[in-house]
Write a structure and sequence with these properties.
- Helices cover 51% and strands 3% of the residues.
- By secondary structure, the chain is mostly helical.
- The chain folds into three domains: 92 residues, Winged helix-like DNA-binding domain superfamily/Winged helix DNA-binding domain (Arc Repressor Mutant, subunit A, Orthogonal Bundle); 63 residues, no CATH class; 39 residues, no CATH class.
- Strand 2 and strand 3 form a beta hairpin.
């Protein structure tokens, strides 16, 4: 994904960090989708940017901490927030800077756009005036072309079948490009179906955090063997201890004659 970095970043406190931390931050900006979500595991990020996993983990932890030197007060200067317990983050000010385009930039865009339109029209008019009839060339590769067209149609049909099941169908052209680059066999096709099934069942999707189609099709392999983290089951001892502490708090710190000198943490029964 193309990302234009806003010049204010060079005046921010991120430039005070070491070179590796700054590199990881710029990579996160590039890996984020249009809404600012980096919906990848730490291992996947480390693999994409060729950096040690521990370094990526340390940098992400730092980006989620308050920054008193930040230029913006949003969430105490934090740069990232979690979107789930195990992995996935949102860049907090991503949308703000994405939409921050000056009037001068808009004028430049329209000026270049109109210039390109005039050049195209001029070229078309020149080609029409110089057009000459030519005999058609003999086609000696009819069978090969037909086979190629059939394979292409089959790939497109299979992609469309997966695409129609995806809940946030944005960025279809990019998604199809990623699909063609990663799905080369029937095994790959089976894997992407399994990955989509796991993704649709995940707590991430149920909470409404859904990647754009172009983003998910670029990292669908992360979801092939995905399993939701198991919730910790409270033991009987932990439950009794918790209930004891809650009751003690409600009664002002003492239960059944507990004068505060009980070091065992067990209820005193008299």
């Amino acid at each position: 994904m193309f990302v234009k970095v806003h010049e204010q970043i060079f005046n921010s406190s991120i430039m005070e960090e070491d070179l590796e931390t700054r590199y990881i931050w710029f990579c996160l900006l590039t890996l984020a989708d249009r809404e600012g979500f980096v919906d990848m595991t730490i291992a996947a990020i480390a693999r994409r940017i060729n950096i040690d996993e521990q370094a990526v983990n340390d940098a992400i932890d730092k980006f989620m901490q308050p920054d008193p030197s930040s230029r913006t007060a949003t969430q105490e200067g934090r740069r990232l927030e979690k979107i789930r317990e195990s992995f996935g983050w949102k860049i907090i000010n991503y949308i703000h800077y994405r939409d921050l385009r000056s009037e001068e930039n808009r004028r430049d865009y329209m000026r270049n756009y109109m210039k390109d339109r005039r050049d195209v029209n001029k070229k078309v008019n020149t080609n029409v005036n110089c057009k000459q009839s030519k005999p058609p060339l003999a086609n000696t590769d009819t069978d090969t072309d037909t086979d190629t067209d059939t394979d292409t149609k089959r790939v497109v049909q299979k992609f469309n079948k997966i695409w129609e099941q995806y809940p946030k169908r944005q960025g279809k052209k990019a998604a199809q490009r990623h699909y063609k680059a990663s799905v080369k066999s029937e095994r790959d096709y089976s894997d992407i179906q399994k990955a989509l099934e796991n993704y649709l069942k995940s707590a991430t999707v149920k909470k409404g955090f859904i990647q754009n189609g172009s983003t998910w099709f670029n990292n669908w392999r992360d979801w092939i063997d995905y399993r939701e983290p198991k919730k910790k089951i409270e033991t009987t001892e932990e439950r009794d201890r918790r209930m004891y502490e809650e009751m003690k708090h409600k009664l002002g710190g003492q239960i059944n004659g507990d004068d505060g000198n009980n070091q065992t943490g067990e209820p005193i029964v008299r």
